Amino acid sequence: MTTLSRRNLLRVGAGALPALALGTRPALAAPLLPGVTVSGTAPSSLAGFDNVMKTFVKERGISSAQLAITKYGKLVLARGYTYSDGSHYVPQTTPTSLFRIASLSKHITATAIMRLVQDGRLSLSAPVTTLLGLSATADPRLAQVTVLRLLQHLGGWDRDASGDQLWQDHAISAALDVPLPISQEDIVRYATGRPLDFDPGSKMAYSNYGYLLLGRIVEKVSGMDYESYVRQTLLAPVGVTRMRIGRSLRSEALPGEVSYASQYTRKTVLDDSGAMVPYQYGGFNVPNHDANGGWVASAVDLVRFARVFDAAGTVLNSTSISRMFAKPEIGVSGDGWWYGAGWYVRQVTGHLNTWHAGSMPGTYTYLARLQNGFTYAALFNRREETGTPDFDVLSPQMNAVKVTSWPTTDLFSKYL
Fold first, then answer.
1. pTM of the complete model
2. What is the mean pLDDT of residues 306-318?
3. What is the signed CA dihedral for 31, 32, 36, 38, rounded to 10 degrees?
4. What is the Cα–Cα distance from 391 to 51, expressed in whole angstroms?
5. Which residues contact residue 100 at a Cβ distance below 8 angstroms, ignoring those fewer than 6 apart?
C-alpha cells in the first residue's frame, strides 16, 4: 500500500504538474483567485508552521491539505489549505475535511491488537497459522510468524522480492481464477500458497500484507468486523467519531471527504472490464487495505487519537504503550531507529520520538510525536509523482520552525 522513500521512513520528525481534482459544484463558492486559501485557526505565534504548509502546497500544486498541532495534548492549531490556479472550481478544505490517511492506519491497527492483548484475549506470541487457521504447507516457516512479528514487519514477506500482495489484484485474480474485485480472503489464500522471502524474525521488511493479517486477527478474536471494533473500542472513548474505512470510487466518497489527484491512470481492479481509470479512483481497492491503509480521517482526529500514547488512559495502559514502542528482536538500525508496533521510533534525550508516513495514489500523510509535547499531523490529497518537487522536505521544514510562545487555548471542543 505504501511506497515511501528511505529518507522519509527514517526521518525523525527531525516538470509538468498533475491536473488538480476538479469540483462540480457552482463556482460561486469557489476560491477562484490564484493562490492558497486557508480556513480554521492558526495563532500568530504559530505562523511559521502555517507558512510552511502554504508554501508546500503552492509549490506542488496540492489542492487540499490539512495541518493539526497539539502541544502537551492541547489542540493549538487546526487548519485547512486550498490551492487554486484560478482556472476551475476547488472546494474549500476545512479543518474537519476527511482525507485518506494511507499507512497512518497502521498504528491504529496495532493499537487494536494491543488492546486485545491488554484485555487478555490475545497473546503477542500466538502464531498467525493458529489464529487464522492458515496452512504452512507451502512454507513451514509460516508457523514461526507471530502477532508480534507481524506488528514489527518481521513476518517474512518482502515486497521488494516478491511484490506487495495488496497491489497485485490482477495477478491474484488470474492465479486463483476468481473475478475482480478480489477479496481479502483471496489475498490471504494467494499469499499462503507461496513461500516466504526470509526467515521470520531475521530482518525487517515493510509489509502491508502483514497488517492485513492483523486486521483479520482483530476480527477473529473480537468477534466484530475490524472497523466496528476500532470505532467502538478505540476511537469513541477518546471522542473521535468521524473516522471510517474509505471507499474506492469518487462517487462513494464520505460526506466532507476531499477529492484526490494523480497524473496516473491504471486498469481498474473493481471489475473485469479492463477499463483505464484514474489511479486514485479504482486503480486500487481501498476497503481491502482497511487495516494497513484504509482509514479516512481529519488531521484533528489523528492528533486527538495520538494522545492515547502519551499516558495510560481508557484505551491503553502503560504496559501496552511500552509494548507499542518496544525494540524488536533484531535490535536497532544503524541509524538509531526501530519499528515498534505501527510506529517508527527513535530515542532522543528523555523521550521517544515516534512517527509514520503514508502514501497512496492521491494521498500523502505524515504524523509525528516529538519531544517537548509537540505532535502534528499533515494530510495532502496528492503524493509525490514524476515531475513534482520533493515531498520529503516537509518534516525538516516543520522541525526548523521556532516558537517563542505557545498558545494555551485548547481548540478540540471547536473541531471535534
1. 0.93
2. 98
3. -10
4. 16
5. 246, 260, 286, 293, 294, 295, 296, 360, 362, 363
